[in-house]
């Protein structure tokens, strides 16, 4: 994979794990620590903020095999410390990084020496090209829901899916439930699936689509029901980004009783950052599927402490 990126003019970077903000998404949970000075730091959940500062400083194609840390991550495909392969292309549309994802799938299979991805008794022929479907089309196909007709009406969205909407449920709560229960179980079984064009409210770091202001340039890659990658056409408007971060942290405060700082240096950098596209890919998840391992810890040299 390094040869692939380096052959395409990328520079490998190594972003610091200690940050003043670990990320500003509602359901993202970070580990924190205090220095002897009393300053509080967080272990980053992604190298995204640092990478964007590098783009603002003049880098154009960068990638990082970053060790990242996420709390409350317990499942066959989740661990609290893992490797995030993250890369960015300045001045390139996000279709370019979607194409990168397809190349990386091929590289993983070639190096694993197997003809198919495998997980939980299911297999997917590695020769099948990825398919691309919008979130709205996926909701219609798999859940019978007209998503774009219910963007401002959580009760209508829930009713279409046959769910009861409580006073505590937000639109995002209903959206996530339909996605997890009705849509994701169908993704990536016939072909690697690019789930594209998320509703704008579900893409805090992505720019709005030029073709439809209701959706954003965000995609996720699925293989055999497992989410492998999350990518964007990157938002570079600092005022809009601040507004979205504040909304996400207000929701985090409401649900979990905590909030993370906003990285002011990042917002300042966005004013100088070129248009760009970027992707975060779970490296161990890809290796797990390429080798047919049943659990993510089977492809790690050592599991996180206490999980052996």
Describe it.
Helix content is 32%, strand content 22%. With 308 residues, it is an alpha+beta fold. The protein has a single domain, classed as 2-Layer Sandwich (BirA Bifunctional Protein, domain 2), CATH 3.30.930.10. An eight-stranded mixed β-sheet has the order 1-5-6-13-12-11-10-9, with helices on both faces. A hairpin with a 2-residue loop joins strand 11 and strand 12. The protein is globular, with a radius of gyration of 19 Å. The two termini are 28 Å apart. 39% of the residues are buried.
| Structural domain tally | 1
Q: In CATH terms, what is the architecture?
A: 2-Layer Sandwich
Low-confidence stretches: none
Number of E strands: 13
SSE order and pairing:
Elements: H1 2-7, E1 11-12, E2 18-19, E3 32-34, E4 40-43, H2 48-56, E5 61-69, E6 81-90, H3 94-112, E7 116-119, E8 122-125, E9 131-134, H4 135-143, H5 154-161, H6 171-183, E10 193-196, E11 218-223, E12 226-233, H7 238-256, H8 264-270, E13 276-282, H9 283-291
Parallel strand pairs: 1-5, 9-10
Antiparallel strand pairs: 2-4, 3-4, 5-6, 6-13, 7-8, 10-11, 11-12, 12-13
Helix pairs in contact: 2-8, 3-9, 4-6, 5-6, 7-8
């Amino acid at each position: 994979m390094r040869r692939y990126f380096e052959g395409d003019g990328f520079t490998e970077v190594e972003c610091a794990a200690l940050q003043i903000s670990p990320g500003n998404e509602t359901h993202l949970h970070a580990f924190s620590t205090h220095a002897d000075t009393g300053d509080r730091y967080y272990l980053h959940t992604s190298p995204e903020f640092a990478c964007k500062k590098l783009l603002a400083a003049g880098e154009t194609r960068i990638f990082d095999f970053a060790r990242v840390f996420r709390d409350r991550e317990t499942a066959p495909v989740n661990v609290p410390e893992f490797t995030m392969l993250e890369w960015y292309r300045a001045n390139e549309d996000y279709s370019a990084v979607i194409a990168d994802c397809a190349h990386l799938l091929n590289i993983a299979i070639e190096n694993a020496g197997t003809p198919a991805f495998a997980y939980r008794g299911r297999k997917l022929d590695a020769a099948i090209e990825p398919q691309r479907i919008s979130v709205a089309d996926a909701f219609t196909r798999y859940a019978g829901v007209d998503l774009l007709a219910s963007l401002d009406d959580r009760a209508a969205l829930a009713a279409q899916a046959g769910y009861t909407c409580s006073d505590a449920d937000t639109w995002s709560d209903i959206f996530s439930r339909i996605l997890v229960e009705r849509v994701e179980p169908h993704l990536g079984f016939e072909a690697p699936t690019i789930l594209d064009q998320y509703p704008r409210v579900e893409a805090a770091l992505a720019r709005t689509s030029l073709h439809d202001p209701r959706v954003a340039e965000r995609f996720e890659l699925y293989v055999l029901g497992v989410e492998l990658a999350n990518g964007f056409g990157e938002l570079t408007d600092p005022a809009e980004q601040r507004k979205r971060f504040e909304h996400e942290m207000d929701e985090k405060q409401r649900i979990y009783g905590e909030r993370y700082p906003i990285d002011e240096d990042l917002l300042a950098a966005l004013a100088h950052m070129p248009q760009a596209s970027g992707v975060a890919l779970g490296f161990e998840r890809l290796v797990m599927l390429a080798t047919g391992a049943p659990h993510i810890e089977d492809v790690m040299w050592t599991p996180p402490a206490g999980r052996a």
